[in-house]
Design goal:
The chain has three helices and four strands; from the N terminus they run ααββββα. The chain has one domain. Helices cover 37% and strands 32% of the residues. It is elongated and about 45 Å long. By secondary structure, the protein is α+β, with helices and mostly antiparallel strands.
């Protein structure tokens, strides 16, 4: 199994994905900015993938703003099977406990 270092790019991307999910997962009822240009500035689409051992992870996140609501989505796939945020949190926890 590949070792993840705390300052590695993969580890930082996992940590950032978890932090962004915690921030935006309940953002539907937030009040978006009044101007369209400000709303577009807040939107994002990001994706990354990595492999640990023979397991392939793929993560996609997006945030869209309408005039009234925020729409956040996150898709995680582990070896092509759709998973939820728990798979990344478990990977992060295992790294902290064992230095995976």
């Amino acid at each position: 199994m590949k070792k993840l270092r705390k300052n590695s790019k993969t580890y930082n991307m996992i940590l950032l994905a978890i932090q962004m999910h915690n921030k935006y997962s309940r953002s539907f009822h937030w009040k978006p900015p009044a101007h369209a240009s400000s709303r577009r500035r807040e939107e994002f689409d990001s994706s990354f993938g990595f492999q640990i051992g023979s397991t392939v992870y793929s993560v996609e996140q997006s945030l869209q703003c309408s005039c009234n609501h925020y729409y956040y989505s996150m898709r995680i796939e582990v070896d092509g099977v759709k998973k939820d945020i728990r798979s990344l949190k478990k990977l992060h926890k295992n790294f902290q406990e064992e230095g995976v």
